[in-house]
């Protein structure tokens, strides 16, 4: 028994020594600390520090799907479309799917806050309006068919302190504000969109602020990728000399709302335009606005800033929040050429970040049937009605 015990003990010791040697041969690396993204709360929610820098970055945007129906000229449907045999006469939906990508950056410097903003849009859909009145080329006459409709750079600017340079909408629109929370807010247009700008924003204290903007203009009479009316251009909206378009504005903001005024000079046609606006926070649920515009037309009927008909124009409306999820938005508009518009919608937040909006639009064309620079492209009725259903996921 002693010999057997000695043999078993020796074997166990040998196995233990072998196991210890094998374990010593395995080298386990020390775990390195993970470099987690650091939250930046200086500029609001959603920002984080770019690793290794002091720059805060936010990435966002939305995915949107629009479906529109309506009369020709209402910008909410496609009318007089041929069938697959090229015959008969149909009307069909206007549809557009969009992916919108936005970026924001912010960084504190000895000269103030350094910021950037970009917005790029990718669209797939068809063209609204009257197929029968489109140009006769094969490409344009097939625009009612769904297709990729291009990529647009809508915003790309840099701002240091009060100085902003880059691609933006004109201060004639951004500083005073767009015309309400309806989808189709340009039934009676309130200014040109898209421009290279050099701007300076002033904070004068006690609720007073101002802006001076030197602008290039662009060849577009409306925002890209959304369904406003499409106009026949009456001239060149981009500067044709070294003299820029000039916009100036001043704003007084308090808890009850704001009063804003902007004035613009179109250097191409030497025309002037201005707008004044009153915003009122009537209650926690109701906000109202009234905006009026006036422009000269000694050289041309409309310019980059005075896109409306005649000399004067007015827009009004507001937003009423029934609860945290549901709101009603309204805009009415009219101009000197007897163009009238009404847009109303109901927006419902299904869940946070996902909104469904149903809108009805009405347009009266004051110069219907006249051959001039004010007619809508494809308009076949003096009075048009359309509807739009929008699904949008913001992130």
From TrEMBL:
Signal peptide range in chain numbering: 1-22
Membrane topology designation: Multi-pass membrane protein
Keywords, comma-separated and alphabetical: Cell outer membrane, Ion transport, Membrane, Porin, Signal, Transmembrane, Transmembrane beta strand, Transport
Annotated GO CC locations: cell outer membrane; pore complex
Compartment(s) where it occurs, according to its Swiss-Prot or TrEMBL record: Cell outer membrane
Entry keyword Repeat: no
PROSITE patterns in the cross-refs: PROKAR_LIPOPROTEIN
Annotated GO biological process: monoatomic ion transport
Molecular function (Gene Ontology), one example: porin activity
InterPro entries: Porin_alphabac
UniProt function note: Forms passive diffusion pores that allow small molecular weight hydrophilic materials across the outer membrane.
Family: Belongs to the alphaproteobacteria porin family.
Domain statement: Consists of 16-stranded beta-barrel sheets, with large surface-exposed loops, that form a transmembrane pore at the center of each barrel. The pore is partially ocluded by a peptide loop that folds into the pore lumen.
Name of the protein in question: Porin
Species of provenance: Mesorhizobium ciceri
């Amino acid at each position: 028994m002693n010999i057997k015990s000695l043999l078993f003990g020796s074997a166990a010791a040998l196995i233990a020594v072998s196991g210890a040697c094998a374990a010593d041969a395995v080298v386990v690396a020390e775990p390195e600390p993970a470099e987690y993204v650091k939250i930046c709360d200086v500029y609001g929610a959603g920002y984080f520090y770019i690793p290794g820098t002091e720059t805060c970055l936010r990435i966002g945007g939305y995915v949107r799907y629009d479906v529109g129906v309506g009369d020709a000229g209402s910008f909410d449907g496609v009318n007089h479309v041929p069938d697959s045999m090229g015959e008969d006469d149909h009307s069909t939906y206007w549809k557009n799917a969009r992916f919108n990508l936005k970026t924001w950056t912010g960084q504190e410097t000895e000269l103030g806050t350094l910021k950037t903003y970009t917005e790029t849009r990718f669209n797939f859909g068809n063209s609204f309006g009257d197929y029968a009145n489109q140009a006769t080329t094969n490409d344009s006459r097939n625009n009612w068919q769904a297709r990729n409709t291009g990529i647009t750079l809508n915003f790309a600017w840099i701002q240091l302190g009060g100085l902003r340079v880059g691609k933006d909408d004109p201060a004639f629109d951004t500083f005073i504000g767009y015309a309400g929370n309806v989808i189709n807010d340009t039934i009676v247009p309130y200014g040109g969109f898209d421009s290279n700008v050099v701007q300076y924003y002033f904070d004068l204290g006690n609720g007073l602020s101002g802006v001076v903007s030197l602008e290039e203009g662009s060849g577009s009479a409306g925002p890209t990728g959304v369904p406003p009316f499409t106009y026949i251009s009456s001239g060149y909206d981009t500067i044709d000399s070294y003299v820029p378009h000039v916009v100036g504005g001043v704003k007084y903001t308090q808890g009850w709302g704001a009063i804003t005024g902007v004035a613009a000079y179109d250097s191409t046609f030497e025309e002037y335009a201005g707008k004044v606006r009153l915003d009122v926070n009537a209650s926690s649920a109701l906000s109202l606005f009234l905006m009026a515009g006036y422009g000269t037309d000694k050289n041309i009927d409309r310019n980059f800033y005075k896109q409306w008909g005649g000399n004067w124009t007015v827009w009004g409306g507001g937003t009423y929040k029934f609860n945290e999820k549901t709101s009603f938005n309204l805009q009415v508009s009219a101009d000197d050429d007897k163009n009238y518009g009404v847009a109303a919608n109901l927006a419902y937040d299904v869940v946070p970040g996902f909104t469904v909006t149903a809108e009805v639009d009405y347009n009266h064309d004051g110069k219907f049937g006249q051959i001039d620079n004010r007619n809508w492209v494809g308009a076949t009725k003096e009075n048009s009605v359309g509807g739009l259903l929008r699904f949008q996921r913001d992130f």
